């Protein structure tokens, strides 16, 4: 029996696959070798130490990006710069599964379970990361019965119920089910006001949850908009409203996003790359609205409102001597086959 440790044997196989990838010019052989590299890479640090890769080789550069980001999200020291580097990975990079695992861990610690699960869903089951994907998915899904004893112990440490949050959730659920609108908004206001200063992220998650509940209630939406405006200003209130209503009112969500753009400029919370990204997302909101209109044959009155909002937005940009690429013409018909991913589920906060 070989005395070589499995990890060292795997690393040696990885370096052999790297040598094959770098030394052949035959496309099929290169593709197979790169596939082997992906399958054998249990640690991006192995590529950093591989003598076959020069310091300037793209594979080494991508391995460094992943290694830095993975270390950052697991030790709580992630920075905006480190996370932004993940976007430099090519679409066909063998590190794409690693990127999604890193983002899943990041959102896991941010308590954004839906975002974490969305990224875990993009890690292939054939990836060497599949065991980590399975464990984290089970924890996020509270499927402790499927975990090993060690993972179950970790699950129990992570999922410690907060008595105050549990009581609040029960109150909100009860008032929803019994359609006690006044009581619902009273409990919601108390919770948001108490939580916003100490755990703003949690408060915003609850606000998003409330917007989703309004899809099946006749409660006055203006109440929630007013609550969030008092806490975070008009821009953030409209942003949360747009994200929270997209799944059940795409036309309305597009208008709310337009208001977010306008008030984001006025409140000076949108500038530079943030403004460009928010403006680009407006196209996807509009595409989602067009798709909903085509499927459900709803009226197009929202287009008139959007055009008015767009004129206001254009004026706000001109006042600041800013220019952005034009959005698609709202009267154009969108190809249903090009429906954006934003229309296929709740955006939640990982859209920010």
Would you report the number of β strands? 0
Largest sheet: none
Mean pLDDT: 77
Low-confidence stretches: 1-5, 329-352
Structural class estimated from helices and strands? mainly alpha
- Helix-strand topology string: HHHHHHHHHHHHHHHH
Q: Alpha-carbon distance between the termini?
A: 53 Å
Specify the number of helices: 16
Name the quaternary structure. Answer: single chain
Shape: globular
Proportion of strand residues:
under 5%
Cα-atom Rg, whole angstroms?
A: 24 Å
Tell me roughly what share of residues is in helical segments.
Answer: 55-70%
Written overview of the protein:
The protein has 352 residues and is mainly alpha-helical. Helix content is 67%, strand content 0%. It has helices at residues 6-23, 27-40, 44-49, 58-75, 80-85, 96-109, 113-120, 130-140, 149-158, 163-177, 181-196, 200-213, 221-245, 250-266, 272-296, 301-319. The chain is globular, with a radius of gyration of 24 Å. 31% of the residues are buried.
